[in-house]
Amino acid sequence: MNRSTASASVSTAAASASVSAAAPLPLSREVALQAAEWFVQLQDGDATAADHQACAAWRAQAPAHEQAWQRALAVSQRAAGVPSALGSSLRRPQRVARRDAARALAVLMVVAPAGWLAWRTEPWQRWTASHATATGEWRSWTLADGSRMTLDTATVVQIEFDGHQRSIHLRSGAVFLETAPDPNPLPRPLVVLTPQGRVRAIGTRFSVSTEGDHSQVAVLQGAVEVQPRNAATALRLQAGEQTAFDRHQVAAAQPADSGAGQWAQGVLAVDDVRLGDFVAELGRYRHGLLRCDPAVAGLRLTGAFQLADTDAVLQNLVHLLPVQVIYRTRYWVTVLPAG
Question: Which interval of the chain is the signal sequence (predicted)?
Answer without folding.
Answer: 1-21
